[in-house]
Amino acid sequence: MKWIMRLVVYGTALTTVCRHLSHEYQEWLAISTSGIMRLIGQPVTLTSLEIYAPVDVGIFVAMCMASNKAPRRVRLRALMVGMPLMAILELCTVLLALGVTLAGPTQSLGGTLAYGLARYAPETLIWIVPVFLWLALLGSWEVPLGRSHK
Question: 141 with 68: CB under 8 angstroms?
Fold first, then answer.
């Protein structure tokens, strides 16, 4: 229960900060995505994105900051590995969604499914990726599964 309270406090503060940084962060994502698409022969210029980035990074950071069972160096390592990984995963998600969107929906079930997944992936992954990344980096310390790090 204490962890959840810390998460709410840190998450509220970081969400506010992330919302203020969202324009610049999404601009970076748009420029990076456009550059990568040009490199692979698809000259696309994105001017804006409508995703919740970097709020998902803030959620991940809040989860790490709320953790207290892992040693400080482990939590810092999780932050140093996790934050850039979150940015890379966001970039990959935008690239995937853009690639499927540019390919266009097809009449096949697989094409329709891929188009739907690409359309909703950015909105869904914001809530999934921070949790799974936190579990991967700090979960063994924070979630009691009968293992001990002593």
Answer: no
Query: Which of 149, 99, 143 has its CA nearest to residue 121?
Result: 99
Query: Is the sign of the CA dihedral 10, 12, 14, 15 positive or negative?
Result: positive
Over the chain, what HEC string results?
A: CHHHHHHHHHHHHHHHHHHHHHHHHHHHHHHHHHHHHHHCCCCCCCCCCCCCCCHHHHHHHHHHHHCCCCCHHHHHHHHHHHHHHHHHHHHHHHHHHHHHHHHCCCCCHHHHHHHHHHHHHHHHHHHHHHHHHHHHHHHHHHCCCCCCCC
CA 133 to chain centre: 9
pLDDT tens, the chain, 150 aa long = 798 999 999 999 999 999 999 999 999 999 999 999 999 888 888 887 877 788 999 999 999 999 999 999 999 999 999 999 999 998 988 888 887 777 766 554 456 676 677 667 777 777 889 999 999 999 999 887 755 555
Residues in contact with 85: Cβ distance below 8 Å, sequence separation at least 6, in sequence order:
133
